[in-house]
Recover the amino acids of this structure.
């Protein structure tokens, strides 16, 4: 098998710990003070990056390429932290990264950026990404990117991947009931949308960060601007979900009675 290339689609999202309020009009929705909100690497996509780095560590010669979409200035701030987590090359796409973007237009921009990667051989490539997103949980971006690249093998909500020397891979996908579906793919390319996996977040390594920054800054300077927007999506209204809390303390109440009260409360 040729040297493996793992392309990871991972964009920035507003820090989930922040209060996110919608703003703008229904025709052009956005988040209030979006450019001022601190950004983080999308949590599910971050798991994909860590899994890629773990594979690369076991397989010398493996190339990890991070393809990230977002405003160039915020991507630069984000990469200051991400660069210390794992060695990778960066392909940046300068575009809005709000939660209202159409998944298809985002995927088209990512697929176009991937096609510009020098010396990319799809026959020895794995496409990684998150199965969900903290900004807009459409769960479609990895699938659309794979289709744009002509990759027909797609695995969703993966928690474990085993790669053989000949390029065959075995994955465990989450299914209903807390069970896993085990699948085998005899050859690359393949697309893998990761759930949370089993790896912890790597510790910061300043040495890795300094090595990465030599190529990250030139990559950010060359970031192409993409036209990413709402597509054909129309929003009828924008509002923060209302919060409601009723507390009741009862001792020795049967479980079925508790369930009935919860259902009645929800119906209200």
């Amino acid at each position: 098998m040729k040297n493996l290339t793992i392309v990871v689609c991972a964009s920035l999202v507003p820090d989930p710990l922040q209060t996110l309020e919608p703003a703008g009009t229904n025709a052009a929705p956005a988040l209030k003070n979006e450019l001022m909100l601190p950004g983080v690497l999308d949590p599910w996509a971050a798991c994909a990056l860590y899994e890629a780095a773990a594979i690369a560590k076991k397989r010398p010669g493996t190339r990890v390429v991070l393809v990230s979409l977002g405003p160039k200035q915020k991507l630069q701030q984000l990469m200051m932290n991400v660069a210390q987590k794992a060695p990778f090359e960066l392909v940046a796409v300068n575009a809005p990264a709000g939660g209202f973007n159409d998944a298809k237009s985002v995927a088209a921009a990512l697929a176009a950026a991937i096609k510009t990667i020098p010396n990319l051989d799809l026959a020895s490539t794995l496409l990684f990404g998150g199965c969900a997103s903290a900004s807009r949980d459409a769960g479609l971006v990895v699938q659309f990117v794979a289709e744009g690249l002509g990759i027909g093998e797609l695995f969703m909500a993966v928690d474990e991947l085993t790669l053989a020397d000949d390029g065959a891979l075995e994955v465990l996908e989450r299914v209903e009931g807390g069970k896993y579906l085990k699948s085998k793919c005899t050859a690359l390319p393949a697309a893998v949308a990761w759930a949370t996996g089993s790896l912890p977040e790597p510790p910061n390594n300043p040495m890795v960060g300094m090595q990465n920054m030599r190529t990250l800054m030139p990559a950010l300077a060359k970031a192409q601007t993409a036209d990413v927007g709402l597509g054909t999506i129309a929003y009828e209204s924008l509002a923060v979900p209302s919060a409601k809390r009723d507390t009741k303390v009862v001792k020795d109440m049967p479980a079925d009675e508790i369930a009935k009260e919860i259902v009645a409360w929800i119906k209200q």
Q: What stands out?
A: Residues 5-225 form a domain with the Rossmann fold fold (CATH 3.40.50.620). The first strand starts at residue 5 and ends at 9. The chain has one domain: 5-225.
